[in-house]
Amino acid sequence: MNNSVREMCEYGTEILLRAGIDNARNEAAEMCMSVLKIDRTALLLYPDRPVSAEQNELFSSMLSRRISGEPLQYVLGEWSFFGRRFSVGEGVLIPRPETEQLVDICIGKIKQSGAKFVFDLCAGSGCIGITVAAECPDTEVYLFELYDGAFEYLKKNAAAYKNTKTHLVKCDILKGIPEGLPFPDVIISNPPYIPAGEIAGLQKEVLREPSSALDGGENGLDFYFAIAEKWIPLISAGGFAAVECGEEQAERIADVFSAYGTGKPVSDFYGAQRFVILDKFPGTPGQ
Q1: For the whole model, what pTM was predicted?
Q2: How confident is the model over 134-163, as pLDDT tens digits?
Q3: DSSP-H helix ranges across the chain
Q4: How far apart are CA 142 and CA 118, in angstroms?
């Protein structure tokens, strides 16, 4: 039994290392902080703080889940995105650092343009749309999600940041926009983009995420073609679209999007072409 914070962290690190988990020390620390409900500063300043039997039991349960292949974010039940905590779990895609970069790009363009209506397609946990709404308080953000599991997390996260102007819409974006909604000035999306034939070869942790959030069809481009056909024509003149994609897909997507404006691939901080940004032609209002 671990009698202190230090012992708990050391024990967790050892268990995770034996399981072959990368970054074991940091993951053990994340679980300790979650169990003890403390931040990293307290973790470092008070290593001799005692831990209870109940806390030990919860920590052991979390370790078991993690070494079984469950992603750390699901084990914790939440993850940080753009400085905010978002609830995540089975049925929803885990927020990733690359997507923070996409959001950062979009926030700058929204503030510059004064865009009023923003659509977040395939919203999942809502980390994109809710962050945009929080950082751009003059906008109204519509978050579109189809699947029940993800929609529950979307509702939970929207409620946690209820001071933002967000509207949740349950729909299949492949079928186009539901009636009665405003036309967007901005569309942002991190849709499924893994080619169906490649999914089985992904890391075991990734395979715990919903296939509906990964499977982009035979070549991974199904959602981008739908966005180009059914959604981009609705964007107001001078607005923009921004999507995340696989690095081998960006040129093809930019080419498809360029029928409606100036589309270009944009690299992430690792140098991979991870995003496509489309600035819609002036004089082509939403239809």
Answers
A1: 0.93
A2: 999 999 999 999 999 999 999 999 999 988
A3: 5-18, 24-36, 40-45, 53-67, 72-76, 97-113, 127-135, 148-160, 204-207, 222-226, 250-257
A4: 6
Q: Cα(84)–Cα(67) distance, rounded to whole angstroms?
A: 27
pLDDT tens figures, 173-224: 999 999 999 999 999 999 999 888 888 888 888 888 888 888 888 889 999 9
Identify which of 180, 120, 117, 177 has the alpha carbon closest to the alpha carbon of residue 150.
Answer: 120
Residue whose tokens read 């009665």: 180
What are phi and psi for residue 286, nearest 5 degrees? -60, 145
The yes-or-no verdict on residue 28 having pLDDT over 90 is: yes
Confidence at residue 287, expressed as pLDDT on a 0 to 100 scale: 44
Token output for 231: 């959604």
Contacts of 58 (CB under 8 A, 6+ apart): 35
Q: Are 237 and 282 within 8 A, CB to CB?
A: yes
Environment class of residue 124 by beta-carbon count within 10 Å: exposed (0-12), middle (13-18) or buried (19+)?
Answer: buried
